[in-house]
Amino acid sequence: MDWGMENRLSRLFGSDGHCFFLPIDHGYFQGPTHCLEKPGETIKPLLPYADALFVTRGVLRSAIAPVGSKPIILRVSGGTSVIGADLADEGLTTSIEEIIRLNAAAVGISIFVGSDYEKQTLLNLAELVNECEDYGIPVMAVTAVGKELEKREARHLGLACRIAAELGARVVKTYWCDKDFEKVVNGCPVPVVMAGGPQCETEREVFDFVHDGMQRGAVGINLGRNVWQNPNAVAVARALHAIIHEKATAKQANELFEDLKEDK
């Protein structure tokens, strides 16, 4: 691994090899998202607990302070919306020159395995890897599994993750599943980061799946809505940081959350 690639990856992960990525890129396909109407204000109190931000170039420029910023994972795919025909019909939105100009530590792109746009999005990933490898910039593949997405079964997630790694992704973001998640991780030769998905009903539910995934081989999380849409967002972020970087159990994280929530 060349120096630039290794240096950028080291900025994304703690000394323990774990990570807490905070995504605020949701507006690229769903517009003004609840609690992200003013993203800079939303994330400000959460930054001490995050290792990196996952964000589009527009929000990065308009809402994120360039001095003292967390490392940036730049969202570089898009072109669809929630009112369009198919969210999987994505293309590349950001040039390599722009990625370098914004000093991104990494870039992120969605792939839709099993969808009508599987080939298109996988070739998007391959093209992005080809460009970014020349400049030592890691690519994170964000997996979706087309029509099988709602099942979130290990065989589908494992397929998507392995293909992403085979095409050159340095990190893969995918969903946790309660059965055979370790097979997803073990079948992927690059680090696996867990996505959050729709907001969970309780904080303990979040802590349980994050702790379980970490025990089964994930290196961290890329959670947004389950953090910043919570009325006690800072308490949730602190508790998740304890699981990721302090080896806290789900029970200990929940107790920490309750203590901090009461102090609010």
Relevant terms:
264 residues; TIM Barrel; 12 helices; globular; alpha/beta; 16% strand; single chain; eight-stranded parallel beta barrel; 10 strands; two-stranded antiparallel sheet
What does this protein look like?
The structure is a single chain. The protein has 264 residues and is an alpha/beta fold. It has one domain: TIM Barrel. The protein is 42% helix and 16% strand. It is built from 12 helices and 10 strands. An 8-stranded parallel barrel has the order 1-2-3-6-7-8-9-10, surrounded by 6 helices. Strands 4-5 form a two-stranded antiparallel sheet. Helix 8 (181-186) links the parallel strand 8 and strand 9. Helix 9 packs parallel to helix 11 (233-246), helix 9 runs antiparallel to helix 12 (250-263) and helix 11 packs antiparallel against helix 12 (250-263). The chain is globular and about 50 Å long. The protein starts with a helix and ends with a helix.
Structural class: alpha/beta
Q: Class in CATH?
A: Alpha Beta
Predict the CATH topology.
TIM Barrel
For this entry, what is the oligomeric state of its chains? single chain
- Kindly report the spatial arrangement of strands forming the biggest sheet: 1-2-3-6-7-8-9-10
> Distance N terminus to C terminus?
45 Å
If helices are DSSP runs of H or I spanning 4 or more residues, what is the number of helices?
Answer: 12
Overall number of structural domains: 1
- List how many beta strands DSSP finds: 10
The coarse silhouette is: globular
